[in-house]
Amino acid sequence: MCLLENVLEWSEQRIVCDALSHTDPLNPLRAADRLGAATGVEYAAQAMAVHGALLAQSAAAPTQGYLTSVRGLSLHVNRLDDQTGPLRITAERLSGDARLILYQFHIHHGERCLIEGRASVVLDAQTL
Prior knowledge:
This protein is mainly β. It has 1 helix and 6 strands. It has a single domain (6-127), classed as Thiol Ester Dehydrase, Chain A (Roll), CATH 3.10.129. InterPro entries: ApeP-like_dehydratase (IPR016776), HotDog_dom_sf (IPR029069). This is 3-hydroxylacyl-ACP dehydratase.
């Protein structure tokens, strides 16, 4: 399930993506005919995964990673599906090494911040 539409920009420290899937009535994360704001964590996690893949372009083979924790999560809205137009998902690498990265993420609709928080990501789950 790919929720993101485009990578708008990226660098070694940051990625910015957009998404339109929050308005899709067939979005697989919808429940009770709505897309709750907490599902934004999955949008951010996918941006982090794309960032990792872009950084590892020269690696021989992709590795399996996973989200280990989410901290400082602030939901400034109750739902995402009532936001018309694209969402902008930004993930910025705060610290990390070859095995673990701490990201800060924000999801905006226009200039309004809808969701923000931090997430830890293990990059090579097979080594644990």
